Each structure stands twice: as C-alpha cells, then as structure tokens.
Amino acid sequence: MKVFVTGVGGQLGHDVMNELAARGYEGIGSDLAPVYSGIADGSPVTVMPYVQLDLTDEAAVAAQIEAIRPDAVVHCAAWTAVDAAEDPAVAEKVMTVNGRAPGYLAQACARAGAKILYLSTDYVFDGQGTRPWQPDETGYAPLNHYGATKLAGEQAIAAATDRFFIVRIAWVFGKNGKNFIRTMLQLSETRDTLRVVCDQIGTPTYTLDLSRLLVDMLETEKYGYYHATNEGGYISWYEFACEIFRQAGRKMTVIPVTTAEYGLSRAARPFNSRLDKSKLTENGFLPLPDWRDALARYLKELEA
C-alpha cells in the first residue's frame, strides 16, 4: 500500500509515517516546508520520501496526486492556531487551508481511485451539555472560526468522495510538536503554582496510539465518521495537569478554576469535548489504550 501523508512536520503526521514504515508500507510525506522540518530523531520519517506541497493550490494538489497515484491519503495538515484563527485578517486563509484544501485532496483522490482519511476535531460541535457526541450525528454548531473551517473540510470531503474516513480527535499530544503536556512541564520549571480550567471536559489523544488506529483503518473499507481518543474516561484539563505532575514527579500546586475565572480566550472553547468512541469496536477496530498509560509512555519518550 502506498500512502501519501500531509503535515508530516507535525505531531500526528510524524507518527503516521513511522507506523507505515513499521508495517512495511510505502509512505510519502509532504508539508509546506521545502524539506522535512520535524524533529531529527532518526526515525523512518526523517529519511522517507518527501515532497513540498501547498495544499491550497488546487492545481498543484491535483498534479501531485496524479503523479504519485497513492492507494490512500492521510490528511494531517491543518491550521491549528485556534485563537489566531479569529483574526479577521487571516479568516479567509484559515478557511482555505482547513475548509477548501481537504476538498481539493478528496477530489484528486476520487480521480486517482484512492481512499482519504481526514483528521477533524471535537470543535465541530457546540461544546454544550454533558452527553458524549456521536460520530454520525448532525446539527453542528461550531463555537469558533477554527471549528467552522474544520467542519467545512469535513463537508468538502464528503461531497467529493464516498471513500473517506473522517476521524475526530481531541486534546492531542505527541513527540513532534507543542502540546499541553510540554507546556505544563515547561511552566513547572519556573513556577510552583498553576491555575488550570476544570470545567472543560474531554479525553487526551496520544498520536503514537492514534497512528496505529489510522493505519488499521486504511487496511479496510469501513468508511465513515469516527471518534478516536485514548480510553480511560472523561477528565478536565485540571485533572490532566494533576496527573502529568504526579507521573513526572514534580511538586506543583494546581488550582482548579472555571473558564470564566481563568479569563476568556480570543476563541470560545467547548465545555463538552466528550466523544463517543463505541463505533470503533462496533466496526472491529482496537480502541486506544488508557490515557494514563499513554501519558506514562509519552513521558518516557520525552526522557529518551
């Protein structure tokens, strides 16, 4: 199987390429940078084939997919700066990157006979209530521009092909990039007290575990919408922070505060990021491990 992976300079794309290599599949990475720009950790992704590609250039996308003729595309690339996306000066650019470019890829995949897997987000929902969001429910109402653009990307893909996997994830962390865990550890080096919100609820997603699931999906024709985070129940960012410091052996006073007490960010954040993942097992996919176990393995990876 030949797989074209976008966004390999980021957390998930990095791990997807390595997972493909581990299974003996042909992975071709891409990103906006002229050469691979991720961490130089010596893993397969650092030496696997790489092409520079501007995903907002529809003609370039079409030409590249036609030239490579992949069996599948994993679309990890995205504008992920949620607060910055609220700036009117970049609003159209964010919509092009997140909302239109996925459609360009999906159209090219349809012409090439390739399947496409698109990474989306819990931000497509309105973040209200306490009921876990179902993969196939409708009536989306994103709270911010980032969420609206990711929803547009979902819709563009579904309109272009029926051979798609749309996988919504949340609270992502991985070795190749910035994330909540790294931020907490960095802050603990200069502070002994932190305020962390306790009224936003969800579950973390470790890219190393997720990459395994995504390649599992590519090996099937079980298309559709899925939710994928690590197992272990729903928690708050406050509870996540406490467990990070406990496992890392760092003494830190963590004070739980509401979103209102913490101070509103430029982009509204969802209170309810609970994603129902039961469709994974219903379709024969192995769920991701407990998030506490994932955190322990990730902390060891950071030490390596």
Assign the structural class, choosing from mainly alpha, mainly beta, alpha/beta, alpha+beta, or little secondary structure: alpha/beta
Name the shape in a single word. Answer: globular
Question: In the CATH hierarchy, what is the architecture at level 2?
Answer: 3-Layer(aba) Sandwich
CATH topology: Rossmann fold
Give, in spatial order, the strands making up the sheet with the most strands.
Answer: 3-2-1-4-5-6-11
Q: What would the average pLDDT be, to the nearest integer?
A: 96
State the separation between the terminal residues, measured CA to CA. Answer: 31 Å
What number of structural domains do the residues give?
A: 1
Looking at CATH, the homologous superfamily is NAD(P)-binding Rossmann-like Domain
Number of strands: 15
Q: Provide the helix percentage.
A: 25-40%
Q: Report on the biggest sheet.
A: 7 strands, parallel
Count of helical stretches: 10
**Low-confidence runs:** none
Q: Could you state the order of secondary-structure elements as H and E?
A: EHEEHEHEHEEHEEEHEEEHEHHEH
CATH class: Alpha Beta
Strand content: 15-25%
- Rg value: 19 Å
